[in-house]
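Teaching assistant here, posting this on the class forum so everyone can see the example we discussed in section. The complex has two components, and the goal was to see what a joint structure prediction looks like when all of them are supplied at once.
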Amino acid sequence: MIFDCHTHWGDCYQARDGLAPARWLEAWDRQGITHGAVFPFAGLINDSAIGADNDAVAAVCAKSAGRMLPFCTINTWQGEQAVEEATRCLEVHRIRGIKIHPWLQGLSPNSPGMDRLCELAAEHRVPILFHDGTPCFSLPSQMAVLARRHPRTTIILGHCGLLEHWREAIAAMNAADNLWGCLCGPHRAALRRIVRLCDGQRLVWGSDHGFTFEDMPAYFFGVFGSLDISDKLRHDILDLNPRRLFAMADH
Amino acid sequence: MDQVEIIDGYCTPGTERELQIHADDLQAALRGAGVSRAVIAPQDREICVDNVTGNDRILSLAARYDGWFIPACTINPWYGDAGIRELRRAVARGSRMLVLSPALQGFILSDEVTDPLIAAAGELRIAVYVHTGPHSSAAPTQLALVAARHPDVQFIMGHCGSTDYAHDMPAVLALGLNNLWYEISLVRPWAVARYGQLMGDDRLIFASSAPRNDPATELNLLNIHWPIREHPGTYANNLRRLLAGGAA
């Protein structure tokens, strides 16, 4: 199996394809990607669309024969309504994780509402994946502090610090055992440092596929493929780690 | 790779951290990717505080490789008049481009601290390459303000603000500043194509940012979205024109 752990069910796809995943999956197929995590998109930029977007992501993933693992999003500024929405997605849609995009959604990772979300995620044994690499609400160190405050919750840096904060992502992951990193965005030299200096059992790979029609898996898979890493580590990052992360059989 | 000329607009033969690469190995990687010449620039520490050491190291490398590498120099604008003297010295010895990195050098790009240095670069008729992308200090919109303030100086926008300023780029391109050029390392290939469609082939400048990126990987992926054979300006001619002192 090969997992793409960072994708979005983009509004462009939804406008064109409704809730049919076939054309969206073609980009994965071209790279041999078998499975992946699918996040909302419209709900990240429009709070009033959160419920409908979570439903859409769950619906399209349900048609993928188990290849697409749905994530939901919430906005913690909505208080109890946010908790209810997360609970609904966990219990009704059986979502596999929660996506938070702090700078798009206007949430500090360490604002009070995040504590309740971390507890909820831990109770249901699903990870929370954050966009990271962008001040002032999406620094890896902010996620590290959150992770240390919530050791039962698995938290993922969605971009390993992107182009500017990847060194901070290394420090962050080495400061919190429950903080994972998704290799999605840093340049090749940064990726080489990350895989060398971080726990290889807490790294996954992702492409950011889906929020436009561009073939992002081809680009990011090409960059990842050019890394001079062992076959075992490559296998761990692409297959074993995500299966463990998502508690899938045979890991 | 297509057999057309490719000049790499920015590489770093570094000795520290992730930039470590011997110039022989850098040249071999570039040649293997089809590159025929490349601009080389000082590494991070040299950009930040050891300007003279870095400039001399890069000039020596360029001389040793008989012109295959094109030397760029760097000055931290906080060095003031001493920095301008160093710029004149480096250019007299052969430096062809001035590199500024606001995040490393500790200034906000639109700050007036850069004005005397930029004016000196204009007087010396060398282009000013600016690393953009880091938040607060190095946004494309900030460079647009600087370029408008110095219309007689040629500027290269390193990385086009990748990645978080991509939404600003079409607006910056629409300003049509004649003295602003756009270097595409770290820009996602599909975004390069979008920028090219907005402005044509006569303003973009290819660079790999090796060894941060692998030149062959980048060129192969770029070729899908912005084909090398169809865009000789992007991959060679624009930089050659700029280094020759050509304006718009």
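For the discussion questions: Chain A touches chain B through 21 residues (CB under 8 Å). Residues 207 and 217 of chain A are 5 Å apart (CA to CA). Think about how each of these relates to the inputs above.
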